[in-house]
Amino acid sequence: EAAEWAKLKDAASITADGKHFDIAANIGTPKDLDGVTANGAEAIGLYRTEFLYMDSAELPSEDDQFEAYKEVLEGMQGKPVVVRTMDIGGDKHLPYLPLPEEMNPFLGYRAIRISLDRQDIFRTQLRALLRASAFGKLRIMFPMIATVQEFRQAKAVLDEEKAQLQAQGVALGDDLQVGIMIEIPAAAVLADQLAKEVDFFSIGTNDLIQYTMAADRGNEHVSYLYQPYNPSILRLIKHVIDSAHQSGKWVGMCGEAAGDSTMVPLLLGMGLDEYSMSATSILRVRSLMKHLDTTELQDLVQQALNVSISNDDNLKLVADFVAKN
Ligand code: PEP
Ligand code: MG
C-alpha cells in the first residue's frame, strides 16, 4: 500500500469518474512545510497561527508574523494558503495575555471574540497577513464565527487596514479571499446567509461536533457522543456545502473528519471541494478517492442522511460500500 501511495505524491486528486478535488494540509508552523511538500499537498487548508503566539514569550510583532506568513506563502509556490487568525482561548492560553477565569472556556472568550475585543492584537495580525499577501495566494479565515454581524465586523477591520496599507503604497496581493470557519451550529444553520458575504467556508468538525452534540471533545466520559457520522452532523455539513455552492462559493473541511476514510466517501458524495488534513494522511486519502465514483456516492449520501438513524449505522453503511468497491 505504501508503495502505491508514494506514486501518488505528484498526482492530482481525482475520483474514479474523473472529478478533481483539492487535498490540502493542516500546519501549525512554517517548519511543517517539509512534510507538506513531501506528501504532495495541493494547498494549505489550515495554518493554525495560534502556535506563533504560544511559542513566544510576548505578543509576536508585526514583522515576526509577516516573516512567518511570507515563508509559508513562498514555500507553497503559488498554491493557495488558508491562514486562520488567532484561535486562543478554550484550552489554549498565553502566559502574557491573562484571560478571565471562566466556567465554560469553550463557550467563552476565545478566537474571533478576543480578536474583535482586542483590536490592537487583531490589527497587527491582519497587517502582517496583508503585507504577506504579495508573496502568494493568501486566503484569510476567521475562526469561531457565530453570527453574520461578527463576520461583517471582522471584515470591516480587515478592509480598514487594507485601505491604510494601500494609501501608504504597500504592495498587496490582488486575489486575496476572506472566509470563515463553520464550527458553531448557529453558523452552519445560517450558512445560506453567510455564504452571500464570504469568499469561502471551511468546516471545522472538531468543534462543530462538540457543540452540536453538547459533548466536550476532550472528555472521555462523554466520548460516546462524539459522533462524526450521526445524521444530525451529516445534515448540517450537507446544508453548509449546498449553501456555499448556491452562492457560487467553495467549501472545504479542516477538522479531523476531512482525512477520515469513513467520512471521505460521504463528503465526496455531497460535493465538498477541499479536504484539509495532517500531511501524513494525504496519500492515503488520494488513493481512496481514486477508487470512488461520485455518481455512486449520491445514493450512499441519501441513505446516510435519510434512512440511517445512528452514527454506527452510517459507519457500517460506508464500510460495506467501500468493501464492494
Ligand atoms: C475544528 O474545530 O475542526 C478545527 C479545525 O479547529 P481546531 O481543531 O483548531 O479547533
Ligand atoms: Mg475549532
From TrEMBL:
GO cellular component: cytoplasm
Keyword terms, alphabetized: Coiled coil, Cytoplasm, Kinase, Magnesium, Metal-binding, Phosphotransferase system, Pyruvate, Sugar transport, Transferase, Transport
Main EC class the enzyme belongs to: transferase
Binding of Mg(2+), residues: 183, 207
Amino-acid positions noted as binding phosphoenolpyruvate in the UniProt annotation, renumbered to this chain: 48, 84, 206-207, 217
Reactions the enzyme catalyzes: L-histidyl-[protein] + phosphoenolpyruvate = N(pros)-phospho-L-histidyl-[protein] + pyruvate
Single GO MF annotation: phosphoenolpyruvate-protein phosphotransferase activity
Cofactor: Mg(2+)
Protein role: General (non sugar-specific) component of the phosphoenolpyruvate-dependent sugar phosphotransferase system (sugar PTS). This major carbohydrate active-transport system catalyzes the phosphorylation of incoming sugar substrates concomitantly with their translocation across the cell membrane. Enzyme I transfers the phosphoryl group from phosphoenolpyruvate (PEP) to the phosphoryl carrier protein (HPr).
Protein known as: Phosphoenolpyruvate-protein phosphotransferase
Gene that encodes it: ptsP
Residue window of the full protein shown: 251 to 575 of 577
